[in-house]
Amino acid sequence: LFCCVFQAILIFCWVYVRKYQSRRESEVISTITAIFALAVALITSALLPVDIFLVSYMKNQNGTFKIWADANVSRQIEDTVLYGYYTLYSIILFCVFLWIPFVYFYYEEKEDDDGNTCLQVKTALKYTLGFITVCAVLLLIGAFVPLDIPNKKNSTEWEKVKLLFEEFGSSHGLTALSFSISSLTVIGMLAAITYTAYGMSALPLNLIKGTTSAAYERLENTEGIEEVEQHLLRIKSKCRDGRPLSSRDRRTLKQLEERLRTLRRRERHLESIEKSWWTKFCEAIRPLKIVWGVFFIIVALLFTVSLFLSNLDKALHSAGFDSGFIILGTNLTNPLNMLLPVLQRVFPLDYILITTIVMYFIFTSMAGIRNMGIWFFWIRLYKIRRGKTRPQALLFLCMILLLIVLHTSYMIYSLAPQYVMYGSQKYLVQVRSIVATYNQLGDIFRSCYIVLFPFILDQCIVTRTYLFLHKFWFFSAAYYFGNWAFIAVFLIGLIVSCCKGKKSVIEGEVDDDDSDMSDDELSVYYH
Predict the structure, then answer these.
(1) Domain locations along the chain
(2) Which of 64, 76, 144, 334 has the highest local Cβ count within 10 Å?
(3) Which residues form a coiled coil (predicted)?
(4) Which pLDDT score, from 0 to 100, does residue 15 have?
(5) Could you give the CA distance from residue 471 to residue 466 in angstroms, rounded to a whole number?
């Protein structure tokens, strides 16, 4: 089963990258890197449901451990999952700080200087060294940052340094890796606020509204061509008697000629789309797209309402900023917290729901990046366009997805903290009941929750995901404020998407700065 899932992920990544990459600028190294990074992002996002399933599978519904799940087996399973996180998170660090930057700068140098491969490698390594330095600094800070500050006022500096090394040795590097991953998760939070929040509103509404008709757009485009040609004739008629055109007329003539080239490219694209089998297929499944759009908007609203109630609960009942807004238990329930315990009764509906939410989070992120493009503050760096995306843009897209995946676990934890921490585990507790005149002791089982009592902690196994989420309170505080920003951006994006009309059937595929050679790429894609 694992091999089949892995093969399916690789096939999807290959199809997705090949669908959007430019045919003229495709590069083997950048293509392999993009496919690998995208596959790592999807596999890492799938680890959370697996982690929850494993801790839940070790216990029966009555709260007792299964026969095979003794202390040693439980520890082995926990260690296996933990090593899985170690491996995938280390690969993410490798991709974000070394491999993707190196391939990006290597390709940039290849465009500037064709020929000297050694010089390109040296220059790419020189720029990549800055990323490696940042990674090393984060690992060092995470390795020696004190989680428990000694309370003794008369403790010497040597005792404090000794404590740091003891903590580093006892955590086996978990703290260093957790700090580095948490730092990247904050960046992933900003990417999720920018791209995922918008994608969650834009993707469903685009599916519901659909696109304009290719035939109708082609008719409008033909009228535009005729209008521009008439305008050009009027300007050129001014110089028939040999008089030179004024500077204003020359500027207007140049703009009109560029506009005419763009309209003619649009004409060729629209003609290709109108005749393609893909357009006819999309028209045939139009009702299915509307159903999917309605389903996605329901999931988005469920996600947003649950996130709002969870954040409101933290604002009202947590210990405040210094604790990272962490709460023990749930005071304000939300739709997702109510739905998961109900679905736990029928295996495996709860795992299907949590997997659906994780995958939805990933695919809406991809939709948001595709619609918005790659931005650096107010500067648009790259566009993500079907069949015409540059290799650098694909590398940026995969890096952003890697960062967003890191933030996904905390987003799911914010929605259902008890479920992410313990899954569907239950524990036994003895209660005394009075029947007639006799006192009787009986065992009842309850769902595991965030507790303070040490004797219950032995009966409930915490997911390995939780260990990476709450090592540092200041990151939890940043995530809390990021959730409010996420909700605000989603609502703004929802309003903007509702007000916008239907998208063009060739939205973003024809721009004024495109060359005529780019028409061949799209025609290859459609035919």
Answers:
(1) 1-214+273-499
(2) 334
(3) 246-273
(4) 87
(5) 9
